[in-house]
Amino acid sequence: MQPLTDLLSSKVKNKSIKLTDAQHQSFNDIKTALAQKAETRYSAFSRELLAVYLSIRHFRHFLDGRSFTVYTDHKPLTYAFASKPDRYSPREIRHLDYISQYSTDLRHIPGRDNVVADALSRNVYGVTICSSPLDFTAIASAQQHDDELIQLRKSSSLKLTDVPLPAAEGTITCDVSTGTARPYIPQQFRRAVFDSLHSLSHPSINATKRLITQHYICSNVHKDVSNWCKSCIKCQQVKVHRHTKTPIGSFPMTQTRFQHIHMDIVGPLPPSEGYSYLLTIVDRFTRWPEAIPISNITAETVAKSFVERWVSTFGVPSVITTDRGSQFESSLFRHLNQLLGTHRIRTTAYHPAANGLVERFHRQLKSALSAVDSTHWTEVLPLALLGIRTSLKVDMNCSAAEMVFGTTLALPSDIVHRLMMIV
């Protein structure tokens, strides 16, 4: 018999060779193995296209003559039929041609919402099926001395009756109010019932509760099933838990004025007198706010405004809290911190609540500017800051001006009182 390696080489050279049935089967197996190995080197687009092609070919007897939609989490695949064919390989064109014979409706679905298809690929440990069924004879025997069942017979609205056991002598107490016989399960058999149903496909807590209550009667089923599902090792290994709750952190409270400040940038705003942005700074201890109009948000402009308007007035802070903006991440701002001897804290990316002190000030400042004149906001900014600085802080029971100057600031409404004092 001629070796298969020679047959493969002869096949490549287009030689005519008559194969036996065993050689033909082995040859097809080798071709299939080589093809599968080559598919692992496909691009992401080719692999997704191959998955759609193989799926439609597998279910073609269900899909032929029907209108259907293909959902994929690979967004470039949805533009395949609208793109020029010269950008695809001959293999990809063949796949697209086959798919177009059935449907051209390819739609995108985010990966986090594609749980129907992902549920099959994520269960890498397989399905564990309970091999030992429930012993209903032992359950019926335990029912005779169960105190909870005695109380249910007296006070429950369930329709409890004795049903003959299907494969043994005796009866078992069941509820027939729903039209089906649901056996009552004593305490010592409830975990076995949970294992026999939950181990089929490891459904969620609510799905497991409904599955158990549809077939059995158990007390405290909601609490027990919740605890058992959360402690299921297989569920923890293969399921994606997206509801991780991280505890909210906090900054240590400062004891000195202008020691810890929070910085951020507001904008772009409507152009006013050549300015389109605001550099905002809030002192953590006194809550003293500062809003500095700037024309652009380059690192040079931000650093210069910070030194001229804050450092020259209130001194050098010890700690500066900012977000991860490019202005604050620049080498210029980093060298400025080294020169001043300050320590900079970066907040969590895409989490404005981490810099909530200055973000809350932005909300109050934008409301004040919009309520007065949002077009010429540079003209009303000083009086808006005066109102914010003199407003009462509920948590401190005083205003920011009182924390800085030790007394209240005179407001425009106080002019009448001052004139009366002069007279």
UniProtKB/TrEMBL annotation:
InterPro entries: DNA/RNA_pol_sf, Integrase_cat-core, Integrase_H2C2, Retrovirus_Pol_polyprotein, RNaseH-like_sf, RNaseH_sf, RT_RNaseH
Domain of life of the source: Eukaryota
Domain Integrase catalytic, first and last residues per copy: 248-420
Keyword set includes Metal-binding: no
Pfam families: Integrase_H2C2, RT_RNaseH, rve
GO molecular function, one term: endonuclease activity
One GO BP: DNA integration
Keywords: Endonuclease, Hydrolase, Nuclease, Nucleotidyltransferase, RNA-directed DNA polymerase, Transferase
Alphabetized PANTHER family for the sequence: PROTEIN CBG26694, PROTEIN NYNRIN-LIKE
Protein name: Integrase catalytic domain-containing protein
Organism listed in the record: Stichopus japonicus
Taxonomic path: Eukaryota, Metazoa, Echinodermata, Eleutherozoa, Echinozoa
